[in-house]
Write a structure and sequence with these properties.
- The structure is a homodimer.
- Chain A is α+β, with helices and mostly antiparallel strands.
- The first copy, chain A, folds into two domains: 125 residues, Sandwich (Jelly Rolls); 335 residues, Glycosyltransferase.
- In chain A, strands 1, 2, 3, 4, 5, 6 and 7 form a seven-stranded antiparallel β-sheet that branches.
- At the A-B interface, strand 4 of A face strand 4 of B.
Amino acid sequence: MEELRFLQKAERLKKELIRETVVLEGSERILKDNDEIVFDLGDHYVGYLTVDLSSVGHHQDAPLYFQIVFAEIKEELDQDTDDYHGWISKSWIQEEKIHIDVLPCSYRFERRYAFRYVKIRILNVSSNYSVRIDRLKVEAVSSADYRNVSYPEFSEADRKLDEVSLRTLHSCMQDVFEDGPKRDRRLWLGDLRLEALTNYYAFQNYDLVKRCLYLFAGSTLEEGRLASNVFTAPKVECDFQTMFDYTLFFICVLKDYYEASKDRETLIDLEPVCMRQYELLKDCFDEDDTIDLQKAGNVFVDWNFDLDKKASGQAIYIYALKDLLKIETELGKDVSSIEEEIKRKTEAALRMYDEEKGLFLSNSQISWMSQVWMILAGVTDPQTGRQILKNAENSEAAIRINSPYAYHHLIQAMIDVGLKEEAYEKMHGFWDGMIEKGSDTFWEIYNPEDPYVSPYGGLVVHSFCHAWSCTPSYFLRKYYY
Amino acid sequence: MEELRFLQKAERLKKELIRETVVLEGSERILKDNDEIVFDLGDHYVGYLTVDLSSVGHHQDAPLYFQIVFAEIKEELDQDTDDYHGWISKSWIQEEKIHIDVLPCSYRFERRYAFRYVKIRILNVSSNYSVRIDRLKVEAVSSADYRNVSYPEFSEADRKLDEVSLRTLHSCMQDVFEDGPKRDRRLWLGDLRLEALTNYYAFQNYDLVKRCLYLFAGSTLEEGRLASNVFTAPKVECDFQTMFDYTLFFICVLKDYYEASKDRETLIDLEPVCMRQYELLKDCFDEDDTIDLQKAGNVFVDWNFDLDKKASGQAIYIYALKDLLKIETELGKDVSSIEEEIKRKTEAALRMYDEEKGLFLSNSQISWMSQVWMILAGVTDPQTGRQILKNAENSEAAIRINSPYAYHHLIQAMIDVGLKEEAYEKMHGFWDGMIEKGSDTFWEIYNPEDPYVSPYGGLVVHSFCHAWSCTPSYFLRKYYY
């Protein structure tokens, strides 16, 4: 019953998207079989394309068959999509093959794409006619309104960093906060948390965060467990997959939302959902108060199969419980048992600390993320935290950070322990690389040492506009301006 | 001015197509990447397909990408379309690749297809879900109404021959008489003539013939010359290509139409167009009254590049002039000059006759079509005609007949010289082969000795429902019942 009410609330919070029309002149080029032409819209858009095509020469005496490729970054256009055989479904590749029986034609693609570049390749005409592309029109959509954004007096480097961050978030803000508008176009709790944080400092669309909270609350797995993500079409349904950390982040998103919006009604309404997650997940620990990864199941932390998640999982649990403590305190509830839980789990966390190495060990593994999350969870004092980060830097064996999502947490941890200037340099050092490559948005995956590396077996399925990479705008506005 | 009036008349004769809905149950089969499924609609249809698809398993977490192939005959489905590199545009191949973002989905294909078989091949799903095809719905269209057809008491063989002939014509009768609803979907004068003849004996849609006559009359090349074919979309425009014989057939179509409909108003209205063709084409002859192929340009006669067209062209001119004579006589005009022209051209035709061989020679070439058209033009008496056909039969060097279109003329010539029984056998001998191969319609190209031979370099672009092959219904009803 409660879930139905939550979903109805989510549905009522669904609003008309903001629409923007972008028109691009076509080309005078006369195209025959195998001719290609690339159009550059000059910025990243999410929306619906209409292409105006006409025939040249004799009357069109056979259908036109053409291929269209939509690309977020230019490098995608060079990929041979036939060569992609990775585990992510090939169906995400943004390309279509279209027959046009009668030219001239204003052809509107029914599907939504995320793109800056459009490549059109003529597959077949007949010998009696050729084709010309007269115009491209994009009806771009977003639920992010630039008119709500105020801009501090940024340095040029920060202005650019902010611009690309906001463009990333803008493109991901649709009917829900999507992880990426190209792929998976889906509401994930981990992405939502970072998007919401940035949104509060920029587009200030509180209702969209609220809607997403209610979508999660209204669509749970057995016993009320929150899934890692929910689908919204054809109807709202949560994914069968759970992640220990993503489930807990619901608490953090609600706490952040309340702090930003002061929407007490929603806090009261959804607090039981937070408590339910706590009740369910507190059983994922062994008698020594350390997380049991068998019981906890999947803990995401970072896109890294080599990473041992025990320490990070332990820390994220503490981190989330501290937010739950704030919620409960705000609502005047008895928080003694939560305080006790935090205390015991923190003590267990500290037992993972290797005094000699000056680093947290996760099943004896040294990794950046273990240090980062222990710092974010506040199990150490700032001074120790600074030393830990220095020790990690000096540890060649430390499992590295892979995703911009995990990079966000490093930057936050550095700021938390007072390394504000170093965090600023680190942030620019990482994110600027994508800007230098001419991207209008920040990527799902980025390794400065190997920018076009693909864990998926091909760039064509990468999301080059990915929500979890949008947080430089949050850092800049919260800590530096 | 006159052309505009003709086109307005054609436009007014355009009527709503007759629509028929055909629903086919889907399949319980659960489909993953590369799985294929073939649906058989049980008859040949021209129209619009809607496929209902749904997902099975977990929530659809990536688009569905599938390929669909529409086929008129089963053998088309075995073709690898990538292998086709012939001169007819590949864009005619009836296949599409479609992404579906949200399942379940009732996907309606916007284009019109001609098909009995539908093959669906799943290109990509994700590992989390599979696909099921729940239903196929065809909205079939035609301007031929079976309720107007009356059926004599056919023998079983004739009933079947008639059924397939009429299905062929039915599928080709759309907004115009198309040559083939798969390819080229276009109004050609040569096809129109045979379709109209059969139509008078079956569907009796006189207005569609009238509309087509006005489309030709309203869209001519310089000096009022009729093209071989006209396009109707995006607006009416005639093709730049002319054919000597097709231009002349306008006269025959009008004469046949008048005989069938007694529509004197149209006869009066379009008679000047016939006279104009005569005026233009009578200059294509040399001083000895034989056709000058350089001046005449393209003469179609048959799909045969080896065929010398001189004798056939000469004969078709006489044939058409005899129809013009009937029109002029009917309208009470002075016909002396036409009679004189027929006389002189017939004398020239007879000079092409080789007494020794008992055959007409076309630039010294012996061919079936030269004999057939000389007989149809009535330059010989029936008895000589019979002997000529016998001599052709015995001449191994005679260039053979290729298309069902040319075969029609052979049957007509045999009947004209009194070989009615032999013509009946010949007709069954030729057309029955396609029925035995399980086809619901008659083909554009058919060689009984090599049924799947392709002059185009691939079966995928063949039209297996082709107007010019529909005339057995005409022969059966006019001469045998």
